Amino acid sequence: MNFKLNETQLSGVFLIQRTRFNDERGYFTEFFREDFFKSQFTEINFVQDNLSFSRKGVIRGLHFQKLPFSQGKLVSVIHGKILDVAVNLKKSSKDFGKYVMAELSEENCYSLYIPDYCAHGFVALEDSYVLYKTTEYYHKESERGIRYDDPDIGVKWNMANPVISDKDLKLPSFKKLIKEGDYF
Ligand SMILES: Cc1cn([C@H]2C[C@H](O)[C@@H](COP(=O)(O)OP(=O)(O)O[C@H]3O[C@H](C)C(=O)[C@H](O)[C@H]3O)O2)c(=O)[nH]c1=O
Asked: Any idea which architecture 3-179 has in CATH?
């Protein structure tokens, strides 16, 4: 099998190492195999693929969709390098409010599986094309998020003067999100 699953310090979030076959022409790598995922995760069914391009310095996130439209995500980098972040929003979890960060790049062939009870975001360390599969369709009305620089979550983005959308700059704090009951 061309995939190796590694646990992270956040329960339910997994780093997947993809095999890359290099030769004089370039390289080949499998991005996704249903049999591998079904063998590791029982209820996983991806329904949508997304591609976003981010210039160096862009931060997108921290986003999630509320139940019943919550989305598990399999995040990969086709070209470039990102620091990918998942934040546990499951109230009953020992990891509630904690985050994990993983470097995903074309070079390291890592993908990150993020369960649907996590918020997701990333910073582009280089111009990057990010391809990710989701286990639920986009549902605009269910979109929620937390400010990228929330002090209670404390993500260390290591990016001076990041480029962030107006929409993301208006996202609530983690404390406000909890008050509104927007957690799992
Ligand atoms: C996510 C999404 C967006 N759109 C439309 C809505 C906007 O007109 C435009 C840009 O959307 P947005 O600014 O929300 O894109 P991102 O900031 O990259 O949002 C994503 O970034 C973080 C990191 C995520 O994990 C989520 O998938 C998602 O929230 O694409 C769609 O038509 N379908 C979609 O699935």
From this structure: Sandwich (2.60)
